Amino acid sequence: MCRACTSNLSHEAMTVEEAIIFLDNLVYEQTEKHLSRLQQSIIRGVVGGLTYKEIQQNEPIARGYTVGYLGRYVGYNLWKELTKVLRQAEILGQEERVVGANLWDCIMRAVQQGTQPAKSVDPILQKLLRMRYRIREHLVSTEYSDTYLADDENLPDRPLCLVKRLKSQSERTSYLFDRETRVLYRLGKHDRIPELLARFEEDGYFYLVYEFIEGQPLSQELIEGKPWEEHQVIALLQDILEILFFVHKQDVIHRDVHPQNLIRRTSDGKIVLIDFGAVKEINTSQNSIGQTKSRGGTQQDYIPPEQAMGSPKFCSDIYAVGIIGIQALTGMQPKQLRVDNLGNLIWQKNATVTPQFASVLDKMVLYAFPQRYPSATEALQALQNLGVSSQ
Ligand SMILES: Nc1ncnc2c1ncn2[C@@H]1O[C@H](COP(=O)(O)OP(=O)(O)O)[C@@H](O)[C@H]1O
Ligand SMILES: [Mg+2]
């Protein structure tokens, strides 16, 4: 039944699907990320009065997940994210929260308020941080950070750099801040990981300054309905895996490999891996810091099940790489892909691919992590063998 029909607000005609699109636009305005298909299924189900068990049974995309995962992970993080978005849009008060039960009413309040409030001018623009970094323009806002382009006024020709300001000022942020900088320090200098130039706290905010990578995020190259050719996909995966080979060798799992964290550098067309905010050192990957096991706003479609459960492995990064490969090869968004009853993706009929490469990709994205390539070393090797045999 259409819940809109029971609403006493002035948007009786709005269907659930229209409401989802509305909400998705609102989320995108604020986070530059769309709701995933799984999140949309949860919204559709909850608004329709279904339990998570019923959602799992009725929504094809939810079928590959356990009820606990849908409720405790996807649903939980979704309400958290929507609460944040609706508070920021001044639709909810600071004390109010989105939960399944009031979701429809929250959406209707948002619809009634109409468009999002005009963006105010960010006071940080033109500011000089640390007597050194002049903020020039706002680049991207994510759930976790705002990134700005800045001039380094201490150096000749004032080279550009990237200033990342973490949104939250909590103790937890301080932990992430510390971890990101320590991991980057440990990764040292690699040509395809941006160099960390400075870290500091100012006016209560945490800042990281990076070498600016001029280029385009990979997400702009992965266009729906425009599949890549196999040799292009192989080259892309090799490019990404070369960086992960280095990262894994340092005992680090990136944990957030997705097309927005991969930048194609303009100068040489190579891929650069950014955003080590979610990485974890291997020896702490199964510790008790419960909240670290997921980042609500990360691109969930690239996260394998074991990572979603809080136990990322090296091969969790490989899974993400495999999904990117399949996305490129099929021209489909990962969320559009179906899974079989073992939880493995069904994608080959949507792609033109040799059986050899298909089996490498399949092995990268296996639901069961012990059967995947254990780390970038083995995955890279498999791709290289492919190159040898196809020549
Ligand atoms: N070194 C960099 N050079 C160029 N753009 C960057 C750089 N670091 C981040 N960005 C841009 O800023 C966005 C957010 O940065 P990121 O480190 O991914 O933060 P978050 O943890 O909030 O996702 C990236 O998706 C990218 O578009
Ligand atoms: Mg990111």
- Unreliable spans: 1-11, 116-120, 283-298
What is the C-alpha radius of gyration, as a whole number of Å? 22 Å
State the helix count: 11
Task: Give the distinct bound molecules.
Answer: adenosine-5'-diphosphate, magnesium ion
Order of helices and strands: HHHHHEEEEHEEEHEEEEHHEEHH
Give the helix/strand class.
alpha+beta
Which percent band covers the strand fraction? Answer: 5-15%
How does this structure look, described?
- It is a single chain.
- This protein is an alpha+beta fold and 391 residues long.
- 38% of the residues lie in helices and 15% in strands.
- The chain is built from eleven helices and 13 strands.
- The strands form four sheets. The chain has a six-stranded antiparallel sheet, with helices on one face.
- A hairpin with a 3-residue loop joins β2 (133-141) and β3.
- α1 crosses α4 (67-88), α7 (230-249) runs antiparallel to α9 (314-330) and α7 runs antiparallel to α11.
- The longest helix is centred in the first third of the chain and has 22 residues, at 67-88.
- The chain binds adenosine-5'-diphosphate (ADP) and magnesium ion.
- Adenosine-5'-diphosphate binds at residues 139-140, 142, 144-145, 147, 162, 164, 194, 210-213, 217, 260-261, 263, 274-275, 277.
